[in-house]
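Exercise 7. Given the encoded structure of a 354-residue chain, write a plausible sequence.
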């Protein structure tokens, strides 16, 4: 295929937080085919196929699957359960078994693969006493081993914590660490089990997508890339300062959370105070405390952004501004978050139906 011809790219996870930004970056220069279980993708330049990575043949019938094998030139696998504290069975099914089905397709099509993982599969330098690794980390690490042992041309992209767009803070849905930040801002999480000097690596979703798109335009394959802020990462004190700034600008009351060493929190705070809380709040704080692991980095993560974006573009980034925009986008939704926490927990029967 000549450089002038458009590649046909199969994208999984196109309706996700990163996937939406990937579509914006890729749709003009590539023939983009998105596999979606529930089609929420409405883009004039994108072809949407209804499918499911957790099903044989990606949920397609034999004819559609064979036709797709013949015309795809590259695969970007971004579909995943991204809740770092989510249901273990669902995380394994989507993040590992789903990846296995995508790898089978790549092997049959004999095309390169961009596999989207997480920076936290990397051996991170955490402070002592942090929460244990999450099921999300475990499944993503297993999936990386799978793709690396599959005998295919593959590059792995490892984003850190994804926040809203760099120029607006827009985030289509709040998940994971956004919920933790919301609990801090609303006063539900008054004590944070993290050292104040702990680094927290955040990456705007459009910045991560642009880095992947640049790699694809250069046909880069074989290496692994960290989509992280690296030396530009903020520490927790910096994050809390920006929360104060955001809440003050919107005339909302804010009590700055207190930072505490993780091991002290586990010994003195968790066993005394958490059991006394109502079900929803107790569950939310449990998840938030688990995710605080990612704000306990002793040293910054490595980054590949200077290579993928160019050194001038990387140096021009303002991570504090990007985070402030995300916090400003989150702040008006804090009332809905606290109201949700006051709702009664679903019964086992209700939960199973959902």
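Solution.
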């Amino acid at each position: 295929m000549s450089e002038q011809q458009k590649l046909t790219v199969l994208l999984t996870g196109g309706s996700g937080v990163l996937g939406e930004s990937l579509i914006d970056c890729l749709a003009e220069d590539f023939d983009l085919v998105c596999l979606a279980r529930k089609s929420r993708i409405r883009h004039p330049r994108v072809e949407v196929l209804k499918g499911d990575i957790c099903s044989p043949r990606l949920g397609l019938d034999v004819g559609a699957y064979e036709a797709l094998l013949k015309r795809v030139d590259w695969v970007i696998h971004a579909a995943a359960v991204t809740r770092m504290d989510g249901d273990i069975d669902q995380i394994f099914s989507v993040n590992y078994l789903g990846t296995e089905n995508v790898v089978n397709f790549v092997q049959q099509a004999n095309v390169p693969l961009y596999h989207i993982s997480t920076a936290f599969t990397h051996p991170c330098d955490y402070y002592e006493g942090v929460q244990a690794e999450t099921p999300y980390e475990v499944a993503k690490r297993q999936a990386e081993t799978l793709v690396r042992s599959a005998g295919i041309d593959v590059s792995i992209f490892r984003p850190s914590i994804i926040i809203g767009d760099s120029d607006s803070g827009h985030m289509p849905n709040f998940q994971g660490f956004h919920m933790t930040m919301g609990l801090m801002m609303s006063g539900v999480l008054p004590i944070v089990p993290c050292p104040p000097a702990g680094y927290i690596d955040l990456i705007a979703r459009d910045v991560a997508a642009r880095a992947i798109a640049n790699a694809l335009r250069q046909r880069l394959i074989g290496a692994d890339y960290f989509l992280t802020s690296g030396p530009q990462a903020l520490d927790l004190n910096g994050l809390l300062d920006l929360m104060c700034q955001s809440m003050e600008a919107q005339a909302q009351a804010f009590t700055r959370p207190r930072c505490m060493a993780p091991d002290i929190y586990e010994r003195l705070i968790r066993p005394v105070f958490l059991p006394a809380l109502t079900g929803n709040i107790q569950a939310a704080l449990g998840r938030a405390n688990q995710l605080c692991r990612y704000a306990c980095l002793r040293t910054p993560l490595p980054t590949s952004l200077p290579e993928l974006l160019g050194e001038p573009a990387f140096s021009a980034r303002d991570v504090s501004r990007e985070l402030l925009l995300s916090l400003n986008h989150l702040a008006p939704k804090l009332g809905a978050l606290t109201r949700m926490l006051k709702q009664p927990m679903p019964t086992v029967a209700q939960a199973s139906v959902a």
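Remark. The first helix runs from residue 17 to 26. Students should compare their own answers with the one above.
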